[in-house]
Write a structure and sequence with these properties.
P-loop_NTPase, ATP-binding, ATP hydrolysis activity, alpha/beta, 247 residues, nucleotide-binding, 24% strand, six-stranded mixed β-sheet, 38% helix, four-stranded antiparallel β-sheet, ABC_transporter-like_CS
């Protein structure tokens, strides 16, 4: 095993993914350190969502490796469900179960994945809902919440099982601008508690939450650095061109 795999809880090595003739990921290399928040930026179609799905084993890798705490999770015979049980995921559409109230949504993974008792799972859910100011919504159904509230519930549902890694995919893209701040505050609060890899098109969001920013261009990570370096003084011409378009 390479020393790269040992250095970080998440290490992505020369990752390739094709969809038919479409070469989406073209040799992605990226390390994420423990308790670090790395933010993926790039034009639509650059591979950010596909990369997150390969890490969660929702998409099969065609070439390359992903090491999660030194284990090659892309190796044949790996038990995907066991890996996913250690990873929290939030997508851009909240995916809350409409027939369950807020507390039931948050408690579900703890009961099903971690096999904790109903009482313990509900106590954990209430503790998290209280932390994000939504304890009074515990018995409300998702359709009674604003978009920002639903997304915050989706995030605390993902962290209820105390995952070692949190994957966030465009979690603010379906929100009105005034609701983005609510979600931003929660992600900032989570920083340091867990290792986070997230994709966003919101450069302001990236600047506030990232320890490092990774720019994906045509399926490759071509520039990685601090938010100040990548977003304010990018080295690569491709990064400069992308930022001039989005800004």
């Amino acid at each position: 095993m390479s020393s790269m795999a040992i250095a970080s809880p998440l290490s992505i090595v020369n990752l390739h993914k094709w969809f038919g003739d479409n070469h989406i990921l073209r040799g992605v290399d990226l390390d994420v350190s423990r308790s670090e928040c790395v933010v993926l930026i790039g034009a639509s179609g650059s591979g950010q969502s596909t990369l997150l799905k390969t890490v969660n084993l929702l998409e099969r890798v065609d070439d390359g490796q992903i090491f999660f705490d030194e284990e090659d999770i892309t190796a044949p015979g790996i038990k995907a469900d066991a890996v996913r049980a250690r990873i929290g995921v939030v997508f851009q559409h909240y995916n809350l179960f409409p027939h369950m109230n807020v507390m039931e949504n948050v408690a579900l993974a703890s009961r099903k994945v971690k096999k904790v008792s109903k009482a313990e799972a509900q106590n954990r859910a209430l503790e998290l809902l209280d932390r994000i100011g939504l304890a009074d919504k515990a018995h409300a159904y998702p359709d009674r919440l604003s978009g920002g509230q639903q997304q915050r519930v989706a995030i605390v549902r993902a962290i209820a099982t105390r995952p070692e890694l949190l994957l966030l995919d465009e979690i603010t893209s379906a929100l009105d601008p005034q609701l983005v701040g609510e979600v931003l505050d929660l992600v900032k609060e989570l920083k340091g508690d867990t290792t986070i890899l997230m994709a966003t098109h919101e450069m302001g969001f990236a600047k506030q939450v990232a320890d490092r920013v990774a720019f994906l261009h045509q399926g490759e990570v071509i520039e990685v650095g601090s938010p100040e370096q990548v977003l304010e003084a990018p080295i690569r011409q491709e990064t400069q061109a992308f930022l001039s378009r989005v800004n």
